[in-house]
Write a structure and sequence with these properties.
mainly alpha
Length: 297
């Protein structure tokens, strides 16, 4: 969520043509109550764009813009409070603003409310209310809510485990290009969990997550598939390439595939794999891996 919110702020400032030289002018306009200037200052302090990052000031200005009815502020302030763990009552205030946005059928607000209820942020855990919120968000088209529901039914910790229902929601999220759901669905097809086992379909899902999103866990599983010939023709050079890409992103599972492959390949093969990895990185510079937290809500 933090990465998404940060990128949203940067995008807002870019569209407004913001430069550091404009900061004094924005302060003056915001001081006079101009809502758009208040919103811009909020993002500047939240991101730390040329100033020291300050959640308290970010939320002070975001609140002013939201109270003036600026939709961009009203839809953002809830998630911002949710992340401002250094501020008192942040979860309580997050819930107030998120509920206002949810009442306007803002799907991300419904999903965030689900997270609050599911994790018991600032209150007791309420799984049924969490699922209700996630389903509402899902009905409105939220891929995150689909992924969250998929994870809930997959784990079966607080609700009965239901792998078929999990796979259904993971598919909905994957169809909306949710990277974690795409990867998780790959695992389910690889292992035959809630779906008929299909190693080729699993490989295609891993490859999609690896290529489109630079997701290191998916990159490793693509490497493992090439190494084992699981769902794809065996290819040690491509296995090494993908294993190295995952390793260089900090993905270090118990099985060190780079080390295993190095012992089985010639120096020329390794050099070829490393060259292909470099080319792949050059072609995918604009892609970024998702936040390194769990895929669960």
């Amino acid at each position: 969520m933090l990465d998404d919110l940060t990128e949203q702020g940067r995008s807002t400032l870019r569209k407004a043509g913001y430069t550091l030289q404009m900061f004094p002018m924005l302060q003056e306009k915001a001081g006079k109550g101009e809502a758009k200037a208040e919103l811009a200052l909020a993002w500047i302090y939240f991101i730390g764009e040329g100033v020291e990052k300050n959640n308290a000031l970010a939320l002070e200005w975001m609140s002013k813009a939201a109270e003036q009815g600026l939709a961009g502020a009203q839809d953002t302030i809830g998630p911002m409070y949710l992340l401002a763990k250094d501020l008192p009552n942040n979860y309580k205030l997050a819930k107030v603003w998120l509920q206002k946005a949810a009442d306007r059928n803002e799907r991300n607000a419904w999903n965030s409310l689900g997270v609050i209820y599911f994790q018991g942020l600032g209150e007791d855990v309420n799984v049924q209310e969490a699922i209700r919120c996630f389903r509402k968000a899902s009905d409105l088209g939220s891929d995150r809510a689909d992924s969250n529901l998929g994870s809930i039914y997959y784990e079966g910790k607080l609700v009965p485990k239901d792998l078929k229902e999990s796979a259904r929601y993971m598919q909905l999220a994957a169809d909306k290009n949710n990277v974690r759901a795409t990867y998780n669905l790959g695992v389910m097809y690889r292992d035959g969990l809630g779906v008929d086992k299909d190693e080729n379909k699993a490989f295609q899902l891993f490859l999609r997550a690896a290529n489109q999103f630079r997701y290191p866990a998916a990159q490793f599983n693509v490497a493992a598939a090439y190494y084992a010939g699981q769902g794809v023709q065996r290819d040690l050079i491509l296995a090494y390439m993908w294993a190295k890409l995952a390793f260089d992103q900090g993905y270090k599972p118990r099985t060190n595939l780079v080390e295993i492959l190095s012992a089985k390949m010639t120096p020329d093969q390794i050099a070829d794999a490393q060259r292909q990895a470099t080319l792949w990185l050059q072609e995918h510079e604009d892609k970024r891996a998702p936040e390194p937290n769990s895929s669960t809500p």
